[in-house]
Amino acid sequence: MSDGIKRRDFLKVLGVGGASAGLAGCSTQSAEKLLPYVVPPEDITPGVATWYTSVCGECAAACGMWVRTREGRAVKVEGNPSHPLSGGALCSRGYASIQGLYHADRFAGPMVRRNGTLESISWDEAEALLAERLQGAGGNVLLINGTTGPTLSDVMDGFVSAVGGQRVEYDGLADAPLREATRIAFGQDVIPRYDFGAANFVLSFGADFLETWGTPTAYARGFTAMSGEDHGEKGMFVFVGPRLSLTGQNADEWFPIEPGSEAALALGMASVLAAEGGDAGPYASILSAYDVSAAAAATGLEADSIADLARRFVENGPSLAVGPGLSGHHRNATAANLAVHVLNAVAGNIGQTVHLDTPESGASSRPYGELEEAIGNMAGGSVDVVMVHGANPAFSLPPASGFVDAFSQVPFKVSFASEPDETAALADLILPDRHFLEAWGDANSRPGLYAIQQPVMQPVPHFETKQVGDVLLSLGARMGSAFGPATLYDHLRARWQELYAASGSTAGFESWWKEALRAGSVSVGAPASGGAAVLREPDAALTFDAPALDGDGEFALVVYPSTRFGAGKQASLPWMQELPDPVSKIAWHSWVEMHPDAAERLGVRDGDVVRVASPHGEVSAPVWTYPGIREDTVALQMGTGRTVAGRFGTGRGVNPLALLPAVAEQPSGGLVHLATTVSVEPTGERHKLATIAGADTQHDRHIAQAVAFADLGHAEDDHGDEGGHHGLAEMQLMGGFVPAETDGEPTAYPLPGAQYGEYGDPETPRWGMAIDLDKCTGCSACVVACQSENNVPWVGEDQVAMGRDLAWIRVERYYETVDASHAGPVDVRHLPMMCQHCGNAPCEPVCPVFAAYHTPDGMNGQIYNRCVGTRYCANNCPYKVRVFNWYTYTDVPEPMHWAYNPDVTVRENGVMEKCSFCVQRVREAQNEAVLEGRAVRDGDILTACQQSCGAEAIVFGDLRDPESAVSQKLHSERTYRVLDDLINTQPGVSYLKKVTFHDVASAAH
């Protein structure tokens, strides 16, 4: 270690063996031999974690990862703090990827269909069979794949060239209209990069940038930096669309426009700005035809409101407009995206908050139109062999596309799926790919930003898999058409040697390569800022009018992507099925979103099953009434309704694509989602909603509090906000702490009379947490991160419907101001509720066996093997954060238990459990500090929920340390503790009130 890197740090993030051996992804050569070791591997110390960097493969964003392994087994994924996209966080799908690695339904090995039945064969037999069929295909070969990294894409192109075939890339979440609109507007065929953090005013025309659109993890960090109150500054967010998505719920204002009228509104706003001096370039004549009056007629909004919004968009700049996103893909979607580009250009945002020189190059934008052509070729008999990797078009396309019939007509069909899906169920040969945590690869998320995807462990021995790149290279060699090196790893190294040469590094390649593996990403050849691009004359005939929708149904149908399943890929994971949808709080099944007034007209209520019919098909699902949707609109979520998704995902909900036509939007070729109207009819049946939602309103309990932005800075006055304002001393008294002076330094002690104040001394930490409700978006990534870190089991739909979910964190959602009838303020509050670790904990004195106890450093502990399940503690908890293990939910199929964290007890049935403040992480940091002869530093301990939060809403630390970040939060006039002023529980969790731009006291409830 002559370069000065400590051995501990080096082993934490670098797979040494991967740098020297292409066959071994890392140096954990005997992953299946957990303990004991006769001769232990050098980089494994039993009981000590080894960390590896990698790239998340759950969506096209390709965020950087850290992967924690124990004894050669991956047990937790986290965001890579040094990666520009993840910044230390991941989305819920990223955290659940560890469950996909060990999923019990993964294919055990290659399989071939004989006499209509799939049978196991060896890899040698499978490759020989496929090579034979490829040689006999005469170049009539089609490869359909999802989003891939640059090295694997090169290998796929080389393979297709060698066999004389065609490759088509398709992603169900692709935003092809945005890319085409960018080409038309600026002459650049890219997906722009949006800098939310540089804006003061954000306007979304429906794009769900906090959920599935673009790079949500990076966008969430920038958005909360913009929208979160910080030292008296706060940006504004306005959402435009017929339905409030989770992104919309975080808005300050909502303009509930007619579905499909985004272009008219954007052009109407741009016309106001152009009339007042903005430069519309070649679009000036178009703006004259789409003025404020035309926008008002198309959207249903008031002309004065549109003009006012346009002026605020510029006056409060820098500003940013995005959208309309996937749910707004209608027959004129390219025109709608172009209108938003024009608005940004007239407002001067290009080069400021909209960047074309460093676009989202990793964002998928492959249009459906290319696959539509391939479907025609299959149906026409011009394809003899079709191969599918990383895509599931049999599910992710509307049945009207004819894909299933066309695919079935191909003589030989091959799937590289690693687990059952609808497309693999039709295949003649299955060659299971490795999970991305077992495989080599790379990513190029933005120009100049490259990251390595390295194996973090040996392949799970239960599954005989092979990386798809190695299969294609082997096939080329078998056919006498070898192209390049023999393995994907060799291709990767060769490609990165080119990057090394371009980097200008003076270190040797091996040192540079190891540093790239350690850091997780490198910057090579990033383009210099090119400044603002100029609008070009449009080269395509477009109409900016709202499109006509199919049918004559009463409701417009909005089909939107799932923040949990995307287009359906993660529907097989029980963690994702059990995670309540952030908007509806429903798990395990589908629902039809409908405005309460519309439901009342139909005579239905929550849980009533309705039949939703369009000219293209029909589905039946229970109603969930939602005030955040227009009365003339209903909505269904994508990703549900899988028919082949293993034991956990099959038969869960309905697929809304059955209601859509298979239409490729022109000129982009993107699949149209906002395409039809539907009729809704009651069936007379009921389906109990599997929901964790309690009340949608707070009933004056002041749980999720807010304060008007205009009232900040007047903490000594009472301005009528919820709970009132309190000075610092009063805040600390409410929380069980009073300030004191010791040697001139302020400290905090337990309130005299606190039940557990006698524990420890002033030098003992009092661990606590602060959560900023002005930054929490409700994304629920913290729920999955906690589930993974603390071995929290899933329980299934029936148990959730009975109220027996076991999640340690419950993200509560309250409607304060939501009105779909007109434009105005919106106030939806999200509050993560976990064990409050009370100083006067009501749960502890009622436990007859002292299973619930108080630690000297202020945490509410739980001794599992002492608990006898009386549940007195849960009855006495005012926050209802204790959950009871009614059954042995942890009896999971092999090898899914490999994902368990060995540092956390796996609980049996009959045990009460709850948030522990990730006590294992606390003790690990304390032990490491003792070994190094120092005190625990602020920031040494990151709880799983804190680490997962890309919005940086959660802070954890020592409340007794006046310099700690969490202690500093106590000084905010926004700080309060839930119910403490009523019941004196003295919680260790503080919240910071949400900040609104409207008067909280007079808000409609």
Determine the CATH topology of the largest domain: Alpha-Beta Plaits
Strand order of the largest sheet: 5-4-16-15-14-6-7
In CATH terms, what is the architecture of the largest domain?
2-Layer Sandwich
Q: Profile the largest sheet.
A: 7 strands, mixed
Tally of DSSP β-strands: 40
Helix/strand-derived category reads alpha/beta
Number of helical runs? 30
What is the approximate shape? globular
Helical proportion? 25-40%
Tell me the radius of gyration: 28 Å
Q: How many domain regions? A: 4
Distance between the termini: 63 Å
Task: Give the CATH class of the largest domain.
Answer: Alpha Beta
The fraction of residues assigned to DSSP E strands is 15-25%
Contiguous runs where pLDDT drops below 50 for at least 5 residues:
10-35, 716-720, 724-754
Mean pLDDT: 89
Keywords:
1005 residues; alpha/beta; Phosphorylase Kinase, domain 1; Dimethylsulfoxide Reductase, domain 2; Barwin-like endoglucanases; 4 domains; six-stranded mixed β-barrel; 25% helix
Characterization of the model:
- With 1005 residues, the chain is of the alpha/beta class.
- The protein folds into 4 domains: 7-105 and 436-523, 2-Layer Sandwich (Phosphorylase Kinase, domain 1), CATH 3.30.200; 176-355, Dimethylsulfoxide Reductase, domain 2 (3-Layer(aba) Sandwich); 555-686, Beta Barrel (Barwin-like endoglucanases), CATH 2.40.40.20; 706-996, Alpha-Beta Plaits, CATH 3.30.70.
- It contains 30 helices and 40 strands.
- The strands form 12 sheets. A 7-stranded mixed β-sheet has the order 5-4-16-15-14-6-7, sandwiched between helices.
- β17 (441-446) and β18 form a beta hairpin.
- α9 (262-275) runs parallel beside α13.
- The longest helix has 16 residues, at 488-503.
- It starts with 6 loop residues before the first helix and ends in a 9-residue tail after the last strand.
- 59% of the residues are buried.
- Residues 10-35, 716-720 and 724-754 have low confidence and may be disordered.
